[in-house]
Specification:
Elements (H helix, E strand, L loop, with lengths): L1 H61 L3 H8 L3 H13 L11 H14 L3 H8 L3 H16 L2 H4 L26 E2 L5 E3 L10 H10 L12 E2 L10 E2 L20 H26 L11 H21 L4 H7 L21 H22 L2
Parallel strand pairs: 3-4
Antiparallel strand pairs: 1-2
Helix pairs in contact: 3-10, 4-6, 6-10, 9-11, 9-12
């Protein structure tokens, strides 16, 4: 009898332990399901929070006032919209995944304007470093495709021009070629800083897609270049820079020519000054690969042209003034393709200088 009672007790005890084990397993299973659901909810909620934060930041850049848009992206909202449409139509930049074209352009312009690193953009736009790098290069290539649209077409100075800087058909240019209204016509980056100016210029005009100088026209260059056909340089060994003149009056045709040359060529210095004021990425050493750096320089010049074209008032020019540092088919026989100094071109410069000097003396009654 006692044995039966003991067996019965053991069976009940074993059943009780099994039930407890089953209940414990069910509790663990339920805990895992709840924990998984909670983590999924937290991750989803975190993604929503990051998305809302990103939208709020984008709205603060391009959805609020023009003042904040200019401060952060260097252009007003209207110009930003024009750039996005150009990139969408001609730059072949498209929305990829969840990143809109507007956000891609914002990240690109913010990097150029403030020269911030990838991790800074990642923190502000709530995107991964790989995503930011991919879209930066996508927009960069898109801007470079807009060269035909944004580069200024060179126009000779008309004979009836009333601006004293451009009398006697003087045009202004250097390797970064700009027009009289501070828009870039040609940009040629890529050479190392130790290369001579003449060597870089020779490469620019010998390149099939390089600088084209029509016969009978010329660009102003500094003393680092030869006085050759198509490129008019000042007299060496003669006072040149405007700050060197002060209240002095030119005493001969060479001094007068250099003074007018410096006054006209100062436009290119101002153009590059505006470029540095506008884009912080050009004011300090870049951490991008050399090939990308060259593309960035060209892109900055193209965006500079867009801003000058679309905005009535250039904010960078105001900042600069306040003291901030800083035909489509051409025939080969009508284009200058050499930069060798010549006696003929030297005589032409002397004749032009003497003519300008004599006209100036007549106007002053000297």
């Amino acid at each position: 009898m006692d044995q039966k009672r003991i067996m019965f007790y053991l069976i009940i005890r074993l059943w009780h332990l099994q039930m407890m084990n089953i209940c414990l397993m069910m509790l663990l299973r339920m805990y895992n399901l709840v924990d998984k659901h909670y983590k999924k909810y937290i991750l989803k909620n975190r993604s929503l929070v990051r998305h809302e934060t990103r939208l709020e930041y984008l709205d603060s850049l391009i959805g609020s006032s023009d003042i904040n848009c200019v401060d952060q992206l260097r252009m007003n909202k209207r110009t930003f919209g024009v750039l996005c449409e150009l990139l969408r139509a001609d730059g072949r930049v498209k929305k990829d995944g969840l990143v809109t074209l507007e956000e891609q352009v914002c990240m690109f312009l913010h990097t150029l304007s403030h020269h911030v690193k990838n991790r800074t953009i990642r923190s502000r736009f709530k995107r991964s470093g790989e995503t930011i790098n991919r879209y930066f290069n996508s927009v960069l290539h898109g801007v470079l495709r807009l060269q035909d649209n944004l580069l200024c077409v060179p126009e000779p100075v008309p004979a009836d021009c009333t601006d004293d800087r451009w009398r006697c058909d003087i045009a202004t240019n250097v390797l970064g070629v700009c027009s009289r209204d501070l828009k870039f016509i040609f940009v040629f980056p890529g050479w190392e800083g130790s290369a001579s100016d003449s060597r870089v210029l020779h490469d620019a005009i010998s390149n099939p897609n390089g600088l084209k100088v029509p016969r009978g026209c010329y660009y102003l260059v500094d003393t680092g270049y030869s006085n050759a056909e198509g490129f008019l340089s000042p007299y060496r060994g003669t006072r040149y820079h405007l700050k060197e003149w002060g209240q002095r009056i030119p005493s001969n045709h060479e001094e007068y020519f250099n003074m007018k040359h410096s006054c006209a060529r100062n436009v290119i210095e101002r153009c590059f000054g505006l470029l540095k004021v506008r884009w912080a990425i050009l004011r300090s050493p870049s951490f991008y690969p050399l090939k990308t750096q060259c593309r960035i320089i060209t892109a900055c010049c193209l965006l500079h042209n867009l801003i000058r074209r679309e905005m009535d008032v250039d904010p960078a020019e105001c900042q600069f003034d306040n003291g901030a540092e800083v035909d489509e088919t051409d025939r080969d026989d009508d284009i200058v393709n050499t930069i060798e100094a010549s006696h003929e071109w030297t005589e032409y410069r002397n004749m032009l200088a003497m003519q300008m000097y004599n006209e100036w003396r007549q106007r002053r009654g000297l």
